[in-house]
Each structure stands twice: as C-alpha cells, then as structure tokens.
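**User:** Once you have settled down, spend some time on the protein underneath, comparing sequence with structure tokens, and judge whether sequence predicts the tokens.
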Amino acid sequence: MTAAIRLHSRLDLLLAEAQHALETTLGNPPAQRPYPASATPDVALDKTERRHAAGLMRINHVGEVCAQALYSGQAAVARDAQTREHLREAAQEETDHLAWCARRLRELDSRPSLFNPLWYGGSYAIGVAAGLRGDGWNLGFVVETERQVEAHLEEHLESLPPADLRSRAILRVMKEDEARHADHAEHAGARVLPFPIPGVMRLASRAMKTVAYRL
C-alpha cells in the first residue's frame, strides 16, 4: 500500500510539472500583479521600431519561460523546504513577467518564440542538474541567472525605441524584481558558481537571444 501511494504521488508530481510546462509554453498564465504599463500611453511606432521592440520583448518572454523551467526543475529536487519556498516565490513573480511580456507582444502585433517548448525543456534539465548538486548550488544558479537577466534588461532599456514607453515601464519593474531575487538568494546561502559555468550560461543566453529576436 505504501509503495502504491508513493507511486501515485510521483505520478501526481509528474502530471503537475507537465501541466505547468504546457501552461508556460503554450498557454497564457495570468499575472497576480497589475500590468506596469497600464497608465503609460501607447505611442504609435513605425514599422521598424515596432519590429525591434517586439524582438526585444520576445527575448524577454523567452527569458521568463526559461526562468519558470529553471526554478521548477530546481524546486523539484531541492532538499530544503525553505529553498523550495524561495524558488516558488521567485517563480510566481516570473509568472507575472511572463504575462506582462505576452501582453506587450500582443500590443505590438507580434507573438512569443516558436521554440518556447525547446527553451523550457533545456532550462528544466539545467534546473534539475543544479538542484541535485545541493541547495547552495541551487541558489547560486538563481543568483547568476538573475544577475545576467538584470544586465540584459538594462541593455534592452537602452536599445528600445525612445517612444516605446510601455515596454520600458514593464522592463523597469522586471529589472527591480530580478535584482531582489538575486539578493534574496545570496542572503539565503548561495554559492558562487565556479569557472566556466557563468561563461557557458552567457554563451547559451546569447545564442537564445539571437534566435528568439526573430523566431
């Protein structure tokens, strides 16, 4: 009986993870916080500006898909309940980011990346691998991920068309959230990732951004 209950619990966990993956990559999960651009006028952009803004917001949407997958994978194997809770709280705010980016893409008459299922699967595998190393490494991946995301959000704030105030309003709130996630993970005992992991993460991120900007 005990074995049957344990098997059922693992199956439930697997089904919940699959549902989360489908909702993240193909669905439209709702945000819990208000849309940051609601009070910002939607100024008309020309065709080139609109395409560029959409490309940047698609990259940011992919980043949130990857964050959801990374944190879900890490939480699935985290040993410490406090670490799991930290990851789930961060993932909830990333869900807000995901919804905001998706809404802005619709406003720009564009769409998310066609490769979202691929981005999710790869990031989930990385999250599980990080989590299996222990909670200190788990949190170390959170810190490095958030610091890199924070840096590329700053680049996007500078690169957005000057008139695109709505996208800029969204990215400012996202950048503040990412910095807070990294700070919390550091205070919770994150370990510094050794060479060459941060560099490999940057290379993978650069490749993802190149593809997601167009597809």
About this structure: The longest helix spans residues 47-77. The radius of gyration is 18 Å.
